[in-house]
Amino acid sequence: MKTVMISTLKIIGVLAFALSAPLTTRAQEVFSLAGFARPAPMQRYQPDLGFPTRRFTYNSAGETRLDKGVRTFRLALGGIPGELGQLVTFPVRDPKSAALFLLGTAALVSVDRQTTAFWQDKVEPVFDGFRFPRRVQLDYISQETQYVIATIGFTYLGGLAFNDERAQTAALLSTKAIAYSYVATQLLIKPLFGRLRPVENISTFTGDPGEFTTNPWDFGYGGGRIPWTGGAYATSMASYHFTQYFAMARVYAGVYDNNFWPYLAAGVISVANIRGHRHWVSDMVAGAVIGTAVGNLILNNYEKRRDTQNNLFLIPSVSRDSIGLSMTMEF
């Protein structure tokens, strides 16, 4: 009985200390099993594809490298199921914006033969032969995408090495951007539209186009097939590469509050192997718009998670002569 009373007093003492301790920029742990902490469930947010309203600021707050790495990882990669739900249901949740996007895309499609002929005849020759050096031969990952992945990897490793939260955040959110771009284009839009890609030299082409076309209104092919491993047939709308480039550029621009370098990089990588993309101009524009929207969705939800990261934790505390609960708050 004496041991039980002592343990009870210790539990009360721990809780009293946690509640009465002065608030700091990061609450101190008052128990031994911090790894078992579980944050309170996050609220659901309506999809917000507009541009974030304020700049992101970061400070070390006296954290160790491990503490910052774990907190940044959890904060950046949180909310994935909800964000995917917002992405998939966006046309239903915001039919006005979806309708405007479709009308704008239809307007571009109506002049696609002319604009794509101009692109092929005037723009592509300027960048012919411009490619990034080949490092690794991978069947299903393009050379350009390999450089995108390498950029994210080096950014994250540099963030860990220099204890830089901004770099870690940019890399982790960009990983989301690439994944969401794949979901939006490869799993949803391409099977839905089933658009044929344009032939080369459309302005002078004659003969059998094969699996390509000279008609920009050739939609509805492919039978809804999901292009898991790519392929040219019926996969024109929208451009996955342009989507991921601009989604990633939007994330880097938002995190670093700098539009010039991220979008310059997106432009450079967009014209690398320029003839290999084989898209209508409307496919590329649609991809850039979708990518920007994906980047905004990621940034806005990240901003909201930062605003609501004050969480209450109840965690078991175990010592040699007592078992109890301790309570901490992060803010």
Key phrases:
mainly alpha, disordered N terminus, 10 helices
What's a concise summary of this model?
With 331 residues, the chain is mostly helical. It has two domains: 63 residues, no CATH class; 262 residues, no CATH class. The chain is built from ten helices and two strands.
Secondary-structure topology with pairs:
Elements: H1 2-20, H2 65-76, H3 80-93, H4 95-110, H5 112-127, H6 143-161, H7 165-193, H8 240-256, H9 260-271, H10 281-307, E1 311-318, E2 323-330
Antiparallel strand pairs: 1-2
Give the radius of gyration. Answer: 25 Å
| Structural domains: how many | 2
Amino- and carboxy-terminal Cα gap: 39 Å
Number of helical elements: 10
* Quaternary class: single chain
Shape annotation: globular
Q: Which regions are unreliable across 5 or more consecutive residues at pLDDT < 50?
A: 1-47, 311-315, 327-331
Order of helices and strands: HHHHHHHHHHEE
Rounded mean pLDDT score? 82
Percent helix, as a range, is 40-55%
Q: Could you say which structural class the secondary elements and strand pairing correspond to?
A: mainly alpha
Description:
With 331 residues, the chain is mostly helical. It folds into 2 domains: 1-42 and 311-331, no CATH class; 46-307, no CATH class. Helices cover 55% and strands 5% of the residues. It contains 10 helices and 2 strands; from the N terminus they run ααααααααααββ. It has helices spanning 2-20, 65-76, 80-93, 95-110, 112-127, 143-161, 165-193, 240-256, 260-271, 281-307; strands spanning 311-318, 323-330. Strands 1-2 form a two-stranded antiparallel sheet. Helix 7 (165-193) runs antiparallel to helix 8. The protein is globular, with a radius of gyration of 25 Å.
